[in-house]
Amino acid sequence: MKQQSRVDLIKDLSSHVAVVRPRTRLLLPSMLWFIGSWIYVVALSLYLGPLREGAVKSLVTSPQFAFESSMGLITGALFCVLAFRESIPSLRHQWLVYLSYLSAIVWVSCYVLGLTFPALEPSMLGKRAHCVLEAYLYSMPPLLIGYFLIYRRYPLNAFRAGMFMGVSAGMIPALFMQISCMYDPQHILTHHIGPATIAIAIGALLGLIFKKMK
Amino acid sequence: MKAVNNDEQRWSQLMGKAQQGDEHSYADLLEELGKAIEAYLRSRFGPIDIIEDCVQESLIAIHAARHTYDTKRLFRPWFFAIVRHRTIDLLRRQKSYTAALERNTLEHIESTALSIEEEVNKSMVFSMLAPAYRDVLLLTKVIGFSTSETAEKLGISKSAVRVRVHRGIKETRKILQNEQV
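^ inputs. structure came back:
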């Protein structure tokens, strides 16, 4: 710690203090990020390959499949909100953290349960050749943009903010693979949700790097 | 309670003006916040060495985070979230042994250790900590002994000291987070 007196420090900080534009709105940027990331992932996926035949129809005909997909969407949105709230001091609510964790557990449990009671008949129909790579790479631009938006505020716990952003960014392609790649719970767990964990790790790492920089 | 509400409103208004570039309001605010942080830390930790460091680091953090304060929200939760975070962070990073050596000689540390310990033990945070955590935090972070010296004094291993320091800081964070300020 610098041996600067408090009076001098206050003088330094307050002299010619710059006008700042408060960055306190969270709902609009978080929703813009979430919707924008979805549009990007869907557009890129469709550009590089078609949807699985009958996948969209399954959302209506199979309640279990619709539930799995809805839980994924809800979990991604919750973690997005969490990550953005983490960027402003005092806005983190512990109940929201627990709710998000619970939602993620329920979502992953759907596929674990699906190993015995699958929502749809497992098949190779619609298999994408590089779904692991796609699930991983698609999540990177949203993750970087999302973390940049958070970093512009003031996350007290940059590591946790990065991790939450990693979950949200990693889940978008993982969930979209649900309808654009083959349906098999084991394949989903290893090839779609698995790469999302890399996004979480990278998000946490970004947090550590930015923390050092700050 | 009325004083708290007055502070709340005044600080919020001053920060609003500071965000618009008002130097005098900002200087007044930082001065008041500096005193508030010092009083807050003294009442919770007693006369520990790092209070001035915590005050200054917190003021710098408040300066860096001032664009995240919304004048429509309460000021105190925002302010104390930053102070708690900086304090815990500093406590964790604190190399008391080295810092203490720079300021004092080892003999001085030994001779003043007892009186500091008595005062700090009475403070809110330390009185709420489990004895195992309190002892290691007192010896390493307040009095300024190294890990091996603390281990020797308490008759435990060095790794046990490190674990207790880690858990003690975690416990301290919980105590600070759970109280209403």
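The mean pLDDT of chain B is 84. The radius of gyration of chain B is 18 Å.
thumbs up if we can close this ticket
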